[in-house]
Amino acid sequence: MIFAGLVLASLLLGCGEEGGLKGTLKISITDAPIDADQVxxxxxxxxxxxxxxxxxxxxxxxxxxxxxxxxxxxxxxKSVLLIDQFATPGEFSSIKLTLNxxxxxxxxxxxxxxxxxxxxxxxxxxxxxxxxxPEVILEKSIGIHxxxxxxxxxxxxxxxSILINDAGEYILDPVxxxxxxxxxxHIKATALSSTIPDRVVAYAxxxxxxxxxxxxxxxxxxxxxxAITSTAVKVKNFALGFLEDGNYDLIFVKHKEDGKVLEVIGxxxxxxxxxxxxxxxxxxxxxxxxx
Length: 291
Description:
It contains two helices and 21 strands. With 291 residues, it is mainly beta. It folds into two domains: 19-183; 184-291, Carboxypeptidase-like, regulatory domain (Immunoglobulin-like, Sandwich). A hairpin with a 5-residue loop joins strand 19 (246-255) and strand 20. The longest helix has 13 residues, at 2-14. The chain starts with a helix and ends in an 8-residue tail after the last strand.
């Protein structure tokens, strides 16, 4: 009876609020940068993160105060941790981030709102497309397991996600990549050139998938639509993060000040990325492979 009592006590402790049989959920955010040179910050304000379970949204975390994230501060393999907490085990079919956004139909302003900040010190609100709720829904399943760790990174691609409509409004039409953090690899590059050209961006493509028409931004809102991720090349050392296993080509592109494509200056081909590892390469921006 004493032994049975000890076993029962252990089970009760194991299910306690300090974790016990719960799992650990970690959700982070990273970003691929926006092309326009005049943008200093893109701030998304998050109020709630939920998971869809059996048709019902269940809160992973309701933030007491809205959390603002400047996505441009988390490029080149950097990320910011939004959630690191115990969670009840279960399977979830989707993830939802609720955002605090400007509302065209209301004069009520709830601060802080999501916005774009320019290098001249001015700012403007970000809106959702007409008729869309202020939220980002990812139809991607995740499992939280007893005493396990579920660690995911949400890769916002700002250059694909932020559009400007005919009224001059900045619109968030989110393009977000779901990455299992521990299954992702990174590319760390060093530029051998003595000087770095202005407004050069490196785009990562699955090896062999880039074609020249990807660079055409005359007939679409954004060029390079099939790029997995990208990073601005502003200093000798730069990185591209959270890539799945496989081989990648880096396409180096010079942009105009407004973000439009000026020219493709070359490529570095067939870079092998392994989960959980960092691949180191050297790039001569003056002697890139032309094809």
